[in-house]
Amino acid sequence: MYSRIKYVIIAVAIILLATVYFIYDPSVSGNIRFPKCPFLVLTGFKCPGCGSQRAIHALLNLNFADVVKYNAMFVPAIPYLILLVIGMWKREEYPEFHNRLNSYGSCVVVFIIIIGWWLLRNIFDW
To answer: The whole model's pTM is what?
Structure first.
C-alpha cells in the first residue's frame, strides 16, 4: 500500500517538475529563479551536469539541437537512467539485468565517461 503511494507521489512530482521545465526556460530570467550550479559559481568551471536544466527544457520542447548544445552527455544519460529505473522495478523478475546495470564494472565505466566529459568540456569549452 505504502509503496504505491510513494510511486504516485514520485510520479506527480515528476509531472509537476516537467510542467515547470516545459513552460519556463531556465536560461531566461523571469518569475522563476532556477538554481545555478554551485561548482560553476565557486570555480568558474563547468561540472558534468552543467546545462542540464536548459537541456531538460529543450528536450520537453522537442528542440534536440539545443539539448546537445547545452549538455551533450544528457542524450546518452536519458536511456541509461531509464534502464536503471526499469532494472530497479524489475529486480525480482530479472535479477541478472539489475546486477549487470549496477555491477562494479558498469559503475567504473560510467564514472570514467563522466570524468572524461567533465575534463573535455572544460578543456575545449563545450
So the answer is: 0.83
